[in-house]
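Why do we bother with a discrete structure alphabet at all? Because it lets us treat a fold like text: something you can write down, compare, and reason about line by line. To make this less abstract, here is a complete entry for DUF1360 domain-containing protein. Read it the way you would read a sentence in a foreign language you are learning: slowly, and without expecting to understand everything at once.
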Amino acid sequence: MTLAVFLLALGATASLTRLVTDDQLTLSLRVWLIGKLGPEHPVAYAVGCPFCFSMWAAGAVYTLAWFYGHTSAYWIVAGALTARWIVGHVASFLDAKEG
């Protein structure tokens, strides 16, 4: 695995973790899972816990990176997820400076 593939996987993992555990876009999914499974269910707990979810996301993303890191599809998807995460943090930082 090249350094570039590794770093894209890192960014994709961070982005997916944020998307699933904290993003407004997936709030209804989290609420539905917690309502369906109960708050004590491991899956319901994991979708609200960035540290818990990131372990599983990293396992999936790095497995895909290992086997498909050389493909254009991997670079496009992982690159988009990484860019999403970086731009989100930069925008948050700049918004905080303005306010």
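What the structure line is telling us, in plain words: The CA atoms of residues 11 and 86 lie 8 Å apart. The chain has a mean pLDDT of 95.
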